[in-house]
Amino acid sequence: MPRQDTPPKVNGSAIFGIDKKLPGMMYAVVERNPRFIGKVKSFDDSEAKKIAGVKHVFKVNREVFRQPV
């Protein structure tokens, strides 16, 4: 049985969850250290806050990878 969802995916008419827009909807971006097990030495959000449309900038302290003991 041929897949029914292939033509809309190929011709661009398919609607995905990422295409959904709601009134007042905001987007988030997570910036990570480019190095494996890297640590942030400093954090300055002043330039990011100057960008039009930026509402909040914050640092999250969370260990993603732990160094072997």
Keywords:
2 helices; little secondary structure; 14% helix; single chain; 0% strand
Characterize the structure shown.
By secondary structure, this protein is largely without helices or strands. The protein is built from two helices and no strands. It has helices at 6-11, 46-49. The longest helix is centred in the first third of the chain and has 6 residues, at 6-11. The protein is flat and about 55 Å long. The N and C termini lie far apart (54 Å). The mean pLDDT is 84.
Task: Please outline the helices and strands.
Blueprint: H1 6-11, H2 46-49
Summarize the structure.
The chain is largely without helices or strands. It contains 2 helices and no strands.
Helical fraction: 10-25%
Regions with little confidence, pLDDT below 50 for 5+ residues: none
Number of strands: 0
* Mean pLDDT across all amino acids: 84
Rg is 20 Å
Shape assignment: flat
Q: Give the biggest beta sheet.
A: none
Q: Quaternary state, please?
A: single chain
How far apart are the first and last residues' alpha carbons, in Å?
A: 54 Å
Number of helices: 2
